[in-house]
Amino acid sequence: MQREEAEQALRARITQLNEHLAAIRRKMETVIADNRRLREVVRLAEGELRKRRDQVQQLEQELQSLQHRKLEARARVEHAMNQLDKLIARGEERP
Question: pTM of this prediction?
């Protein structure tokens, strides 16, 4: 009789351990699924970040180009003003 009780207790313990293992397995599957979802989110975020970085680089290049053109235009205006000043000075010398 004692042996039957020991076997029954052992079976109950095995059943309980199996239930715990099943619960652990379910939780691990949930963690794995969450991990996969997070990896996908990170992948999408990295793609968006690369896209934004490219946009920023393009805008920076456009800004540099505009600044360069502005400096060139300023230099042309200054050159034209110097030429006008010279012409005015020559005109004042002639009378």
Answer: 0.60
Would you list the DSSP string of the chain? -HHHHHHHHHHHHHHHHHHHHHHHHHHHHHHHHHHHHHHHHHHHHHHHHHHHHHHHHHHHHHHHHHHHHHHHHHHHHHHHHHHHHHHHHHHHH--
CA 74/CA 83 separation, integer angstroms: 14
Which of 51, 31, 49, 53 is CA-nearest to residue 41? 49
The length of the chain in residues reads 95
Amino acid (one-letter) located at 85: D
- Alpha carbons 85 and 22: distance in angstroms, whole number: 93
Residues with pLDDT less than 50, the chain: none
Structure tokens at 45: 């975020």
Distance CA(91)–CA(95), nearest Å, equals: 7
